[in-house]
Design brief:
Elements: H1 2-9, E1 63-65, E2 72-74, H2 108-142, E3 147-153, E4 159-167, E5 170-176, E6 187-193, E7 204-207, E8 219-223, E9 230-236, E10 241-242
Antiparallel strand pairs: 1-2, 3-4, 4-5, 5-6, 7-8, 8-9, 9-10
Length: 245
């Protein structure tokens, strides 16, 4: 209690009046550097307004500031890790640059696979294209079902109309007289029945040459079954066509 009373009885300290800004001087303590606002840690402090502006160094120059005299020095840039080396002297010792190394080639199986694909494509085209082209021509010429028509004078009563028809694989010929009557009616001739694949696409044509030399035109039916066409002959007996006389 006595200590507190003694402290309380001590007179307050008197503060020193601040000097005008023009009469103020700044000193620096080597033990308390930078403890007051506006002071610099060097022996000769200066205000911020008196300091030169900072200029950022370029990549080609370096800046060094001496702590006492504040002199500026320039020196070449320090070496960096991004340095390029010339590997030419090492070429004679069996060492090669990365750019000079040969690139690995394609695997042989790749070329074999390309050859197989080309072969399959060629065989497919060789097999399918001729058939498709032939079907396209037959469709244009004979239609579907395959039909062939012509007129001929065979001695059965004027000029008659003949029709060769592929009826689902059965080759038929229809004779239509030009002057039909009770004794001169249309006649149907069954030529051949085709059983192979695509039989309904086979066309047939008609011609009337004199096969046996009796001055009567006979009927010749040509069945255009791909590369193996067949010819069928019906002989003229004066009133109709028969297989044999």
């Amino acid at each position: 209690m006595k200590l507190r009373e003694q402290i309380a009885q001590q007179p307050p300290y008197r503060r020193r009046a601040s000097l005008p800004p023009g009469e103020r001087t700044y000193t620096t303590s080597y033990h308390h550097i930078g403890t007051r606002s506006g002071m610099h840690p060097e022996d000769q402090p200066y205000m911020t307004a008196t300091r030169n502006r900072y200029t950022a160094p370029t990549p080609h120059t370096s800046v060094a500031i001496h702590e006492e005299s504040e002199n500026v020095y320039t020196r070449p840039p320090a070496p960096t890790s991004a340095r390029r080396y010339d590997l030419a002297p090492y070429a004679g010792r069996g060492e090669h640059r990365t750019e000079a190394l040969p690139r690995p080639g394609k695997h042989p199986l790749l070329y074999i696979g390309i050859c197989l694909v080309i072969t399959v494509a060629f065989l497919s085209a060789y097999t399918l294209i001729p058939q498709a082209y032939q079907k396209w021509q037959d469709d244009r010429m004979y239609g579907y079902p395959r039909t062939f028509q012509t007129d001929a004078t065979v001695g059965h009563g004027g000029t008659e109309h003949f029709l060769a028809l592929n009826n689902h694989g059965t080759i038929e010929v229809v004779e239509i007289p030009g002057d039909p009557g009770k004794t001169n009616q249309s006649r149907l001739y069954i030529i051949v029945l085709l059983t192979n694949q695509g039989a309904d696409l086979v066309p047939a044509t008609l011609s009337f040459p004199d096969i046996n030399g009796d001055s009567k035109p006979d009927m010749q039916v040509e069945v255009l079954d791909g590369a193996n066409p067949s010819i069928w002959i019906l002989f003229n007996n004066g009133t109709t066509f028969v297989p044999k006389l």
